[in-house]
Amino acid sequence: MYEAIFSIALTTALLLGSPGPAPLALAAVGASSGARGGVPFLSGILLGLLVAIIAAATGLGALLLSYPNLSAVCQIVAIVYLFYVAYKIANNHSGLSDIAGSEVGFRDGFILNLLNPKAYAACIAIFANNSVPDVTPVMGAILAASTCFIIAIVVDSLWLMLGGVLHRFIKTPIQLRNLRLFFAFLLTCLLIWISTTHLLN
């Protein structure tokens, strides 16, 4: 049983921790607002991921992915929404002036992962390729979902903290502005690459 849980943990860390739009957005928010300022965004991402985990554990995620058109629409909406998140990161004025910033928050993270077919696909892959032996199917699903979510908390928190470390080195408003623009640019480039390689093929 412990080997199966370790396998689930490792698979989750690799699938959810590898660089992608959500981890990069977490690092960008951490760099822009600091690790503490990014906690609402992280919480939203995790709640959205929890929906994906529950959907995968109950079979609803597979149902979503079995309709390619619906999955494609969700992916397009998620990419468009990520462009909006990149825009908000680039145009966040907090810490730069007295103008209220367009902070990236809980709702942004939640919507991002709620609409992210990759989150559902990753969770389905985790559940499809890993089962917990010597327990009932329900208990196995609960153990797998719990392990997946705990690892996601750790991995996503690390991405946010990575950005938070960068935030500490920012000494001037110009540096902060440039860092926000840099992360928004990176996120935009990644989204363009995803759009051209995954959606157009």
From TrEMBL:
Record bears the keyword Methyltransferase: no
Domain of life: Bacteria
One GO cellular component, as annotated: plasma membrane
A Gene Ontology BP annotation from the UniProt entry: cysteine export across plasma membrane
InterPro entries to which the protein is assigned, alphabetical: LeuE-type
Membrane topology: Multi-pass membrane protein
Main location: membrane
Keyword Transmembrane applies: yes
Record's protein name: Lysine transporter LysE
Species of origin: Pseudoalteromonas rubra
Organism lineage: Bacteria, Pseudomonadati, Pseudomonadota, Gammaproteobacteria, Alteromonadales
